[in-house]
Amino acid sequence: MAKEKQSFEKRLERLKSVVDALERGELPLEQSLALYKEGLTLSADLGRQLTAAKNEVRLAQDGLLKEFADVDAPGAAGRDAGDAGDGEATA
Q1: Using CA atoms, how far apart are residues 19 and 35, in angstroms rounded to an integer?
Q2: Directed axis angle between helix 73-90 and helix 29-71, to 10°?
Q3: How far apart are alpha carbons 53 and 59 in whole angstroms?
Q4: Count of other CB atoms within 10 angstroms of residue 46
Q5: Gap between the Cα atoms of 41 and 60, Å rounded
Q6: What digits encode the pLDDT tens for the residues 51-81?
Q7: Domain range summary for the chain, segments of one domain joined by +
Q8: Rounded CA gap, 44 and 31, in Å?
């Protein structure tokens, strides 16, 4: 995983340098266009990596939240039992 993180960091640094070069506006059109395309590719790749990382975090959080739900079960069970009790009272 450390290798992937370094790869992400290196790509991010490269994207920053591409943006800086384009913002200076000192490059010929052909070189600017090539850098722009490279920047789009880097941006898309980084976006995909971030989305994948966010999804992994959500999966991990869901697992932890389920574990914490067991700790909070008395309150949750009380609400469920109260709801069921209301349903039984009307039935």
Answers
A1: 8
A2: 70
A3: 10
A4: 15
A5: 29
A6: 999 988 988 888 776 766 666 666 555 455 4
A7: 2-90
A8: 20
